Structure formats: C-alpha cells, structure tokens
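Database export, one record per block. Field names are fixed; values are copied verbatim from the stored entry.
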Amino acid sequence: MESNPVLLESKSSPINLLNEMQQLRLLGHLCDVTVSVEYQGVRAEFPAHKAVLAATSKFFKEVFLNEKPMDGFHSNVYLHEVQVADFASFLDFVYTARVEVEEDRVQRMLDIAEKLKCLDLSETCFQLKKQMLESVLLELQNFSESQNPEEESPARPNIGPMAEAEQDPPDSSIATPGCGASPEGLDAKSKEKM
C-alpha cells in the first residue's frame, strides 16, 4: 500500500536561519569575506559570508562568481564612496530582513541598495518612501483644509450670541463684561441683532 506524500514545512526555519547567520557574522565565525568600505577618509571593515551577500546582492554575486581562485579561502572586497553606517545597516538588513534607520537616511539606503543591486532592500526603501510621501501629502491636505474652511462649506457657520457680540465694534451704549454690565444685557443686545 502506497502512502500519499505530505509536505513538511517549517514557518520558523527561514527566521531561525537568518538569526543564526547573523550571530555567526557578529561573532566572526565562518566568515569568508571582508568588505572594506571608505567614505571621506572614514574606513571600516566588515566580516561577512559570501553566500549571504551573493544571495541578497547581485553586485556581490557577480564579484564572487567572477573572482579568480586565490591561494586562500578568504576574499576582500573594497567599496569606495559608501558610508560606514550605511553599509552596517545594509548588512543588518541582508542578515535579518529588517533594519531601523533614521528617516533622513532612507534615501541613502535606497542608493546603497541600488549600487549593490539588492532588490529586497530597494523595494523596502521604495515602499517606505511612498508611505512617507503619502503621509506628508495627507498632512498638507489636512492643513490646507483647516486653513480654508470657507472652501468646504459656502454657508457662513452659525455664530453664537457671545461670539457675535465679541465681533461687533464697541458701542458706547453697551458696557463690556467686567465694567458693571450684566450678562443679561449682552444677551438682550445679541437677541436684538438676531
């Protein structure tokens, strides 16, 4: 009797794999490439794994597939005009599928994603920039509507008796509150106007 095939699939395995690779990178274990980045005299070196970089970046994939076998197992890649903080964030993203950056760095992250041909990071940055733009446009629209309430409703909004009394220029026959006049006197004057 033949049994039907069943699918064994782990939902946590991809996340666990990424977490373990990140831990190996942070500890410097099994790293087979060092990426040196330099920007305006600031330089740093990042140990990483060729397989992870090649799987997430077409730039690195091309570099590693086209490199000539050296006498050693370890490779070095040099990137100029890449800021240290941006490459560190790039590595965090490719090893964890997420990274937290300041809003003003999103464009720089998009630039590095395009330079290194990392489609996942490019799409993530693009979606975030789109959300940020939509949020700004919504705020501008709300601000514009709050500044121009006449455009929303052509009829003049109802003004209460006190508000109307405050808008009228002072009349010598009407005393203002606090100067011996009673609120009833103001109400009577407001009713006359209505």
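Remark 1: Residues 159-194 have pLDDT under 50 and may be disordered.
Remark 2: DSSP finds nine helices and three strands in the chain.
End of record.
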